[in-house]
Design goal:
five-stranded mixed sheet, elongated, four-stranded antiparallel sheet, 43% strand, 3% helix, Immunoglobulin-like
Length: 134
């Protein structure tokens, strides 16, 4: 997905379902995300209900934003009638365009939502140019 021709996120990753998949370390799921773009940054919102801040790892490496972590079981070995809440390991990656300033990425987790601010480099941000009379 390319937005305004400046910032690229891998379309496959953005549209992933939150369906568990088998991985080397057991079942892994992809948390659902929303991504918003403004003139100055991208903001990513990841749904991580029940996740403690210390159980989340977010890193930027080789042009990719990598989100991993673990959701601990809420109720142990209870018998559920229905179950949609992801538990276990989660993993998600996003390919970022070089127009993102990786040195200024910030993240916070509150009420089960991880918010990641991905600021654009100044060169790609729109700016107003003053037209002078001669």
């Amino acid at each position: 997905m390319s937005t305004n021709g400046n910032v690229t996120l891998n379309e496959k990753d953005v549209n992933q379902e939150s369906t568990p998949v088998r991985a080397n370390e057991g079942i892994t799921f992809a948390p659902r995300v929303d991504i918003y773009e403004s003139d100055r940054e991208l903001t990513l919102f990841a749904d991580l209900p029940g996740v403690r801040t210390e159980d989340v790892e977010l890193r930027f490496e080789n042009g990719q934003l990598i989100l991993t972590g673990h959701v601990k079981p809420r109720l142990g070995e209870k018998r559920f009638l229905g179950r949609e809440y992801g538990e276990g390991n989660f993993y998600r990656t996003f390919a970022l365009h070089e127009s993102i300033d990786a040195t200024k990425i910030e993240a916070a987790c509150k009420n089960g939502v991880l918010t990641v601010h991905l600021p654009k480099v100044e060169a790609v941000q729109p700016r107003q140019i003053t037209v002078k009379a001669q």
